[in-house]
Amino acid sequence: MNYFNKLPGFIKTPSGFEWVLLKKLPRIFMACIAIPCTVIMYTYFSNPALNPEQQKTIYLCLGIIFSIFFFIGAAAIGCVVVMIMKGPAYVADPYELPKENKKLEQHPNN
């Protein structure tokens, strides 16, 4: 029994923007987190003791970094889903329908 039966005559859709975006995501991620990481490093390494405002700045930058990480991850998952959807079509094993019984289709109001 073959679990993955390809649909005969299926034409594979050519790749589009999803591959372009997926290849650019690491660079986009690094470019987006460069500024918050620079702020964190400058704040952390320039002061021997951090006051509450500086800690707040560090925590806000960490929040921005994690938000960017989740947005980039969602975009990557979307690209993978589009690539899977554009792949070859598969067909399941046929299911034999039972014989029709016309008496079951009669409504009581007829």
How does this structure look, described?
The chain is mainly alpha-helical. Helix content is 58%, strand content 4%. The protein contains 2 helices and 2 strands, in the order βααβ. The chain has helices spanning 17-46, 52-85, and strands at residues 5-6, 90-91. The chain has a two-stranded antiparallel ribbon with strand order 1-2. The longest helix has 34 residues, at 52-85. The protein is elongated. It starts with a strand and ends in a 19-residue tail after the last strand.
Key words describing this protein structure:
110 residues; elongated; mainly alpha; 58% helix; 2 strands; single chain
Short description:
The protein is 58% helix and 4% strand. With 110 residues, it is mostly helical.
Number of helices: 2
SS-derived structural category: mainly alpha
Q: Which H/E pattern describes the elements? A: EHHE
Q: Mean of the pLDDT scores? A: 86
Shape: elongated
Computed over alpha carbons, the radius of gyration is 28 Å
- What is the strand tally? 2
Q: How are the strands of the biggest sheet laid out side by side?
A: 1-2
Main beta-sheet annotation? 2 strands, antiparallel
Distance between the termini: 47 Å
| Low-confidence segments | none
What percent strand?
Answer: under 5%
Percent helix, as a range, is 55-70%
Question: What's the layout of helices and strands?
Answer:
Elements (H helix, E strand, L loop, with lengths): L4 E2 L10 H30 L5 H34 L4 E2 L19
Antiparallel strand pairs: 1-2
Helix pairs in contact: 1-2
